[in-house]
Design brief:
- The protein is mainly alpha-helical.
- Helix content is 41%, strand content 5%.
- The protein has 13 helices and four strands.
- It has a four-stranded antiparallel sheet.
- A hairpin with a 4-residue loop joins strand 3 and strand 4.
- The longest helix is centred in the last third of the chain and has 20 residues.
- 5% of the residues are buried.
């Protein structure tokens, strides 16, 4: 039997459309993208070598230290505080610990970057800073040429301390401590105010040097402690001049110390010296050797009785009454 194929116009048009789609350029790319990707367990060595060849070589310039002249202006290179940079420091600096061999060099050295450096405080840089600050300063007074004159006109002295140590912060806790020193004789005080001031100060007064020392460290900054010591001095000074109502009622028995000028001993001495006349006043300036007797009696009562105080009092009485000359006459 013979079979015959009858193609219609519809079949021919569809077949032509299929051929056009399969042979178009976009179709080929689409088919390639739809293919499965190949799993490469071991990368091709050739491709890696080709990628290395394609990499560009970067020209790294030499360190700055190799181009620095010897007579350069170091203050321009390192003008202020900054972290250590090995390419800017023309010194063979080493830091760190190695069990065998020399310490680590300055390149890639974390130890040099930990601590604050003082490369900006070289003598020429400090000299340049001082020259720039001179325009804001005043000349030292010519009349203050001795230490005695300085203490006379400026009796107040402030003592502070600065520290340099390795830490993330440059502020040392001990740098906040402030001490104020002033002589007691430079303060305007009467007998009552001086006695009260010394009782308020306690052990902050040194009788050998006649210096009052007030120290403050309770505030976190130095400036706050400086204001605090000034406040303490002003407060204790004005408090010493204040007279409480109960102080006027104090009698000789209630006094904290023996005052020979207001005691009966002074009146008895003046009466005995001017006997048989009755003294019109109790002025003892014209009595010879009375100062030694006054000090001996005051020390004996205020400091307590001991062999030294008794012998001192005995000698003062003999000198006052001229008993030594009297004994020599009989000899």
């Amino acid at each position: 039997m013979h079979s015959s194929v009858h193609l219609t116009s519809t079949h021919i048009a569809s077949s032509c459309r299929f051929c056009l789609l399969n042979h178009s350029p976009g179709r080929s790319d689409y088919l390639k993208s739809e293919q499965f990707r190949v799993l490469e367990l071991y990368p091709q060595k050739k491709a890696a070598k080709q990628e290395q060849k394609k990499k560009r070589k970067i020209d790294v310039p030499p360190p700055r230290t190799t181009q620095m002249p010897v007579d350069q202006d170091w203050a321009s290179v390192w003008p202020g505080t900054r972290t250590f940079h090995p390419a800017s420091v023309p010194l063979p600096v080493r830091q760190g610990y190695v069990e065998k061999g020399a310490p680590l060099s300055k390149y890639v050295n974390a130890e040099l970057m930990k601590i604050p450096n003082f490369l900006h405080l070289t003598p020429p840089a400090i000299r340049k800073h001082c020259e720039a600050l001179k325009q804001f300063c005043t000349k030292w007074p010519i009349t203050l040429d001795t230490e005695e004159k300085c203490r006379e006109h400026f009796p107040l002295e402030i003592i502070i301390s600065d520290y340099c140590y390795a830490s993330p912060t440059i502020r040392d806790p001990l740098a906040r401590i402030v001490s104020l020193q002033v002589k007691l004789s430079s303060l305007h005080l009467d007998t009552h105010a001086k006695d009260k001031l010394l009782r308020l100060l306690g052990n902050k007064y040194n009788p050998e040097t006649d210096i009052i020392t007030i120290t403050a460290d309770r505030c976190p900054t130095r400036r706050q402690n400086l204001d605090y010591v000034h406040y303490l001095l002003i407060a204790v000074y004005h408090e010493s001049w204040r007279v409480e109502p109960w102080e006027a009622e104090k009698s000789l028995v209630d006094m904290e110390y023996f005052d020979w000028d207001t005691s009966q001993s002074r009146k008895n001495l003046v009466t005995l010296y001017k006997w048989p006349e009755s003294p019109t006043d109790h002025d003892y300036d014209d009595i010879p050797n009375v100062t030694e007797f006054k000090i001996a009696v005051s020390d004996l009562i205020n400091n307590g009785e001991d062999q030294y105080a008794i012998n001192k009092y005995k000698g003062a009485v003999k000198t006052l009454l001229n008993l030594k000359i009297f004994f020599l006459c009989f000899l």
